Amino acid sequence: MPLSRRALVSTLPAAALAAMVLPLRARAAGGPATVGQATGAAHTRLIDNTVAVFAGTRETNARPEVRAKLTSIVATARSRLTAMDRAGQGELFQGLALGTSDPNLNTSYQYLYEIALATRTPDGGTPSGLHGDTGVQRRVIDGLIWLHEHYYGDQSKGYYGNWFTWEIGISTHVSKMLALLADELAAYRPDLAATYVASMDAYLRNGKDGDVDLDSRFHTGANLADITTNRVLQGAVLGDDTRITKALADQLTILATIDPYELRHGVTDGFYADGSFIQHASVAYTGSYGKGLLTRVVQTVKMLDGTGYTTDDQLVGVVQGWVVDGFAPLIFEGWLMEIVKGRGMSRPATGYADAAEVVEAVVGLSAHATGADATALKGYVAHLRQTSKATLDPSAFVSPMSIAAYADILADPSIPASDLGPAERHVAFNAMDRTVHRRPGYAFALARSSSRISRYEYMSGENLLPWFQGDGAHHLYLSGQDQTQAFGVDYLTAVPPQRLAGVTAPVETRRTIPELYGTLWYDNPERGFTSSSEAQNTYVYFPRSTHPFSGGATLGPYGVAGFVQSDDVAYAAKQAGDLPEDFVVYRDADATKSWFLFDDEIVVLAAGVGDAACRAVTTTLDTRIAAPSDTLTLTGRLRGGAPWSGTGTASLAWLRYANATRAAAVGYVFLDGPPSTVTLDTVTRSRRAVRLANPDTPVTKQLFAVTVERAAGAPHTSMAYALVPNATERHLDGYARHPLAVLANTTRLQAVAHRGLRITALNAFAPGSHHAGRLSVRGPGSVILRETLDGGVAVAVSDPTTERDTVSVVIRGRRMRAVAVDDGVRVGRVPGGTRIVVTTRHAYGRSFTATLR
Known about the structure:
- By secondary structure, the protein is α+β, with helices and mostly antiparallel strands.
- Helix content is 31%, strand content 24%.
- The protein is built from 21 helices and 35 strands.
- The strands form 7 sheets. A 9-stranded antiparallel β-sheet has the order 11-12-13-14-23-20-19-16-17. It has a 7-stranded antiparallel β-sheet with strand order 24-25-26-29-30-35-32, with no helix packed on it. It has a 5-stranded antiparallel β-sheet with strand order 10-15-22-21-18.
- β13 and β14 (602-610) form a beta hairpin.
- α5 runs antiparallel to α6 and α10 (221-238) packs antiparallel against α11.
- The radius of gyration is 28 Å and the shape is globular.
- The two termini are 30 Å apart.
């Protein structure tokens, strides 16, 4: 496996990043004849590369693997031409009325692009009748002229609706069309490219002087990549070298690892040292915006090939680090996990389709890597194909060239299929409050929130029921399963929002944003609430929680995570009188939780579970869905030893959920706490319930849940249980021998010992001294200790609050000496044991490890 390269540009100043964009001149394609000739050759090469990326070449398009993609491109273009023929008044395409709808305007440009693409796509030996058709190209150009004259060019009439449409969406379609039709534009309307570029510049209203503004909160992360790629294409079409080099310098700032203690331009969007990716300042977003950023940067690498504009090896190395550390842990058997998709989790596209976009990017990246790096990337592509439970359809790739390269990788026997990380691993994305724990038989994905990270993302009528998605909600993926049957949009549709797996929530009715306000946002310009205002972002679209404790420690393939559930910033602001009277807020329930992630089980402790407002509260230990025809069985044993089966409320020792149809099973071991309630219902709900744009498709599922119910006014309580993936009844009976021990379970301290693994782990949530097993810790912190067979210990320590300068831990027993310690770790003797002092200042929740003997 290649080493991580995230740190490659993490310490580079802005000037060094800009230097990665080389001055063209003699370096440009075409040789050192003259500056102008060299520059022009580079621009031509850039345009040709772009056409090849999106339309393919004669060589790639002659491949049989590419035929389905070509058929799709042509069929789409013919459909758009028919819609153009049938357009009514105020339309360029039938059904897309213009003048007030920015989505319709954007779609009109998209349709023009799809026609233009077909005219530049070599047919691969099977004539389509569109490739090279200048008549059709001129119809596209005429459409561009008409849209500009009537609906786009007038700045006083434009820029309504979503800012993204005007600064990114339309510009993306237009910029690619300018490249695709460069020759015909020069012959037919040579003035049009400059006219459009001037308009696109003017619509960069969140920028500065018609260009990118790196201090703008809109020009960050994936959005910045989109804008700058568009400007690179515009520069090539206009022969504007300054535009290209400036755009690339801006884009390369995205490569710098985000240092939360030394922000550049105040930007928190991007990749962090632990592999986390954030967009919109506080949303965990690898699976949507991060995926888009990866795609766009890889496309840029391909567009710039041979132009002399960038030092390719540096750029490729950084992006490869994103793949290894940011994406690979989040893709399990070809499924991209929901916990990093923001509002995108409510869309009908599957995790397999989302992962396919990553695959295409990796295929493209591998062509620009060398040696072992290229082999590792290609091996990962083969691994995803081998382990995915859905056949990847390469015709969904954007580029015909990607399809051909993908086929070559799969056909190459010298490329070993291999993941980019070990099968047994614990990955703490503490910078975005996410945890992924993987074993060969399962993957456990945990979503938390904090005063740093949003509880959820709602926007534009997407993810309508989001309230508890960052309250410790989890997804337990079982190996060998078709995850579309267990998760995805159907899980979100079938499961009530307050009963998501892992969540403690009040029993109450909540209304969606459209139900509350009759619009897709809270509209109150006088108080600062417009569709894309900072107030809207802060209090409506993606509110943060208010407690700092969220994170944990990692020791090799094991880990512990903790979370203090809290109200969000909207509720806090409303109580302080800082929000309008008609602004609706919701109060959260109370809970302090820890997850101890081992080999066969995930142990969960919850304390202080209840509600200060005296509402009824439900804690959902797990929820699973199944097809109506699947055969499910529920068996268990009571704490007294008697067998138990079916549904109901009981004091259970263990429970086993089994889906005989899917050969899937999950066990639940109840270590402590009130009686549990087991339910199995059949529900039917519409996918539109979670996203307004979804088709009104009814989803019928068997819905299994195991919960702990607390009546209104009941005192706060605690509980401890373990999730046991793929468990047999015999395995679950074995927990009667107590391999797991709960050492503490309060709102101050939660700790567990696993005797079989010789592990003790804890989360301390409050000031003061805390003791569990051999461990003592002062103040908040997370610790995991494993005793070695030779009498030594390995220990990991972190500060999940990110606010402490040091965390001090004492290991009681014989004094030990340091064998190996991370930088920032000091080991000393104290009466009765050994003290470890970890400097956690500016560590942003990462773990520090030490081996003692």
